[in-house]
Amino acid sequence: LNLYLEKHRFSNTSTTDLWDALEVASGEPVRTTMGTWVNQAGHPLVTAERAGASRLRLSQRRFLLGAGSARDDAERVGAVSPEAGSAPGTQLWVVPVTLRYATADGNIEHHQLLLRDASTTVELKGEPLWALVNEGAWGVYRSHYGQDLRQSLFGALEHLDGRERLSLAADTWAATVAGLVPLESSLALWTRLRHDRDPD
Fold first, then answer.
1. pTM
2. Residue 11 and residue 195: Cα distance in Å, rounded?
């Protein structure tokens, strides 16, 4: 912010001037990332599925709450550049994703990436016992899991902080309303959380 204020003191600026200053200060692709969030409607659903013993496939598509809409939208999504506009079914974001997962040897691992394409495969440091897509629940997206990953994460709630458990419950319920997971998934999670005393 100091860089931005100093450079543009007593002059006019545009939104991208702030993004450029943040990009210089952080070394991260802020302009490209922010453009995908500000210049198109909606927000993404990031789905994690197993893609082998020690690999996860992450994919994105626009999240729509209407029953069946997210599934229909997924079938129309192509590998389109984030700058390619926001025609229905072609929206992509540059999504900062932070994974946390546990391996069989007892280690807790972290992995960060920018999900730019419709999907990507992430190499892990071992087969995950469980994996959390939105570590810290800071990401502005819905998280969704393949059935086996969802079940293993439900069994590892003690490894999630209150904000992460809240995000998981909200995302699971949203996926239920959108027709992506059965009601039983939300009920199973709520049952496991019935003794949770976190204020969230």
1. 0.83
2. 56
